[in-house]
Amino acid sequence: MQFALLVSVIVALLLGAFILLTHTQSVFKIKSDELITAYEELNTALLQLPEKITINDTIREESPNSVTKLHLSYYGLWLKAHAQVTKHGRSVAKTALIGSASIPQSPNLYLCNTNAPLVVVGSTRLEGNVYLPEQGIKAGNIAGNYYQGTRLYYGTAYQSSTTLPELDPQWIAYLNGLIDPPQQSRDTFTTLTNEVKNSFQHPVRYVFNPDPVFIGNQKLYGNIIIQSLSSVTISAASDLQDVIIVAPRIKIENGVTGRMQLFATQKLEIGSNCQLNYPSSALLYDTQVNKPTNNTAIDRAPDFRIQPNTEIQGTVLYLKKSKERTSNVKTNLKIDPEVMITGEVYCQGNLDMLGTVQGALYTQQFTANQSGSIYLNHLYNTKVLINPVEDYAGLPLGNQTQRLAKWLY
């Protein structure tokens, strides 16, 4: 009798455990399916942004089973999109950097119409869509070095206008605010220690110093803005990932490797043998209005220079706050030989381009400083090639569709 009772109890316990396990598995499957659906909705929200984007606004969408929130803001050159999906009281969130996608007619080379033809010299090679002045393109020579190509360009030619394609006005407004001293509350500031990490799920952390800043062996990761009212120097011993640097003068020493966004207003120097990984950006926003120019070597030296054997995966920009043209011959941006840029170069001034761009190059005018002379609208040993990254996302140009650049952490 006792044995039969014991067996009955064991059977009841096993049956109860089986029922509990079945119920738990059923609940777990429902929750797992909800979680999978939530992440699918997150991806949809981030990868299919609305056509009209209002920065620093939150878009809220409700359905019978979920609530989706999408917040858009800028983080450097790229749009930062943060999405959150809530289902039955449980929330999941993801953040990504978003950039503009190219279209079949997107330029690979865009030279403004300044009533002068483009002259190709040496081993220059132009691929893809080339937007040229009304006077077109021709072969030339510099100090006895003639054009070596069999064709003037390898793609399709279009006529350019007198101005460059416009950048998104909302991003320009953000840029003007970025270069000003931060006005955030003090709890968003931090000190520059040997290691600073900050997730993009948290508010941005500011490292602010009115004096010169030297970044030596520090490790700086994530949602961090470092700003000086004087200068910032970054050494090869540093480890910077996804941070923003803002200062009047920025110097990247030789051999620096990392992923960063640089915003200078007076001078930007990137040394040799550097590797800036995607998505990186380097921008000189020339805010000096009507600055005097003299015909001296120092005055004619470029304010923005990228030295040999450096690779940048992202975007290089020279922008002017004033729309007035200053010197017709001073080089504003110089890209040395053996420099590789996979992405875009955008110059609202004079560009001395001696390296290679895989992607797109936009400029107001070319200047080739060779053999003691300055040749206007000459390209000497320059390569403008098709971007090998088909899903590249970059420049904040107006009226273009958006594409994922990078998932954030």
Topology:
Blueprint: H1 2-47, E1 58-62, E2 67-75, E3 78-87, E4 90-100, E5 109-111, E6 118-121, E7 125-132, E8 137-139, E9 141-142, E10 145-146, E11 154-159, H2 169-178, E12 195-198, E13 205-209, E14 213-215, E15 219-222, E16 224-228, E17 231-234, E18 239-252, E19 257-270, E20 275-286, H3 297-300, E21 304-306, E22 311-320, E23 333-335, E24 340-353, E25 356-370, E26 373-376, E27 378-380, E28 383-385, E29 402-407
What is the gist of this entry?
This protein is mostly beta strands. It has helices spanning 2-47, 169-178, 297-300; strands spanning 58-62, 67-75, 78-87, 90-100, 109-111, 118-121, 125-132, 137-139, 141-142, 145-146, 154-159, 195-198, 205-209, 213-215, 219-222, 224-228, 231-234, 239-252, 257-270, 275-286, 304-306, 311-320, 333-335, 340-353, 356-370, 373-376, 378-380, 383-385, 402-407. The protein has two domains: 2-100, no CATH class; 109-392, no CATH class.
Task: Offer a few descriptive terms.
single chain; 2 domains; 19-stranded mixed sheet; Cytoskeletal protein CcmA (Bactofilin family)
Low-confidence stretches: none
Strand element count: 29
Q: What share of the residues lie within helices?
A: 10-25%
Largest sheet: 19 strands, mixed
Average pLDDT figure: 90
Question: What's the overall geometry?
Answer: elongated
The number of helical runs is 3
Q: For the record, give the distance between the C-alpha atoms at the N and C termini, rounded to a whole number.
A: 64 Å
Number of domains: 2
